[in-house]
Amino acid sequence: MIKPNAKGKDTILIVDDTPDNMLLLHRFLTQAGFRVLIAQDGKSSIETVNYGHPDMILLDVMMPNMDGFAVCEQLKSNPETQDIPIIFMTALTDTVDKVHGFELGAADYITKPFQHEEVLARITAHLKIYKLQQQLQQNNLELDAFAHTVAHDLKTPLSGLAGLLELLSLECQADQIPSPRAIKHLELAMQSVNRTFSIVDALLLLAGVSRQQQVPLQTVNMTDIIIRVQERLALLIDRSKATIIVPEKWPNALGNPAWIEEIWSNYLSNGLKYGGTPPHLTLGATMQEDGFIRFWIRDQGDGLSKEQQKSLFTPFTRLKNHRQEGHGLGLSIVQRIAERLQGAAGVESEIGQGCLFYFTLPKAEPE
């Protein structure tokens, strides 16, 4: 039996057009310690969910007008209700496409006539999973808030330190007395400060992406974004003597221009560091059948093993065989941004065959 939590009893909504079934479950679950809500049809069940905020829904599949599948689909399409676990209820004689129910987002099925121990076991298991997911989301929000606060607070002393080092460097040059070793130490100190600034900016971006509740999507001009990224990386491009091949025309996609610029900036800077000597990078886009566009960058570097690929998008992880400086936040930011823009990010690679890094965005309708 599940004991009431600190905020009160767990709430279960029963949706069934058969009064006997509803009364049986209501009595059993109430005795088991739950707060129980009831609805006798699909339309009223959605209204009950909106004001009752249940922790779980027991949903009959076979109902007139609006069946359980339609109810499930509507609830799962709403961000406010999509995480509530739904257990379908069916009779043994019902012909039900259970695979379809799972595709819609259902957590489980139970069959009539009900076995109380089985029902309670399934409810207990899925409520536990639901609460763990909620706790994980809350922990992530708190972690992002903490990262944002720490990164923001670090910027002020770092700015002061950078200014003092710059003044010291100018004074040393004016006096013409410092040794080459002292000048080298000043340069290393400035490099450390700049790397710390980079980490702070990355943390602020990562936290900002996670904390923003609503992400408005707009048609993006990918040509302009690539031009801005190349301007940002002009010094690195020049030093590496890189060749970058860019399409003359890009397909229209939906996204956030500033965030997409960060994705390309991370992918391009990694390609310039690891994409061959000198780097040879090819950018492109591929239309997918699911209504998304896959944007990609291919390099001619050493490639990555399957094990390396697994950890590549994990925050603060850097590959041991890469000698370039970095803080390991770049690709985790890419993944977080892509997911917030309704897409995904990833890599395809084999040792000796280079890498193809990609991200997907929803296709925009032609203007």
Please outline what is shown here.
The protein is of the alpha/beta class. It contains 11 helices and 12 strands.
What's the layout of helices and strands?
Elements: E1 11-15, H1 19-31, E2 35-39, H2 42-52, E3 56-60, H3 68-76, E4 86-91, H4 98-104, E5 108-112, H5 116-175, H6 180-211, E6 218-220, H7 222-232, H8 234-240, E7 243-245, E8 253-255, H9 257-274, E9 280-287, E10 292-298, H10 306-311, H11 330-340, E11 345-349, E12 355-362
Parallel strand pairs: 1-2, 1-3, 3-4, 4-5, 7-9
Antiparallel strand pairs: 6-8, 9-10, 10-12, 11-12
Protein name: histidine kinase
Catalytic activity: ATP + protein L-histidine = ADP + protein N-phospho-L-histidine
EC number: 2.7.13.3
Give a quick set of tags describing it.
disordered N terminus, five-stranded mixed beta sheet, five-stranded parallel beta sheet, Rossmann fold, Heat Shock Protein 90, 17% strand, 367 residues, alpha/beta
At the first level of CATH, what is the class of the largest domain?
Answer: Alpha Beta
The CATH architecture of the largest domain can be named as: 2-Layer Sandwich
**Beta-strand proportion:** 15-25%
Largest sheet: 5 strands, parallel
State the CATH superfamily name of the largest domain: Histidine kinase-like ATPase, C-terminal domain
Shape type: elongated
Q: How are the strands of the largest sheet arranged? A: 2-1-3-4-5
* Total E-strand runs: 12
Mean pLDDT: 81
The Cα radius of gyration reads 28 Å
Return the domain count: 3
Q: Portion of residues in helices? A: 40-55%
Which segments are poorly predicted (pLDDT under 50) over 5 or more consecutive residues? 1-7, 319-328
Which structural class should the secondary elements be placed in? alpha/beta
Please provide the ordered H/E string of secondary-structure elements: EHEHEHEHEHHEHHEEHEEHHEE
**What is the end-to-end distance?**
57 Å
SS summary, helix count: 11
The CATH topology name of the largest domain reads: Heat Shock Protein 90
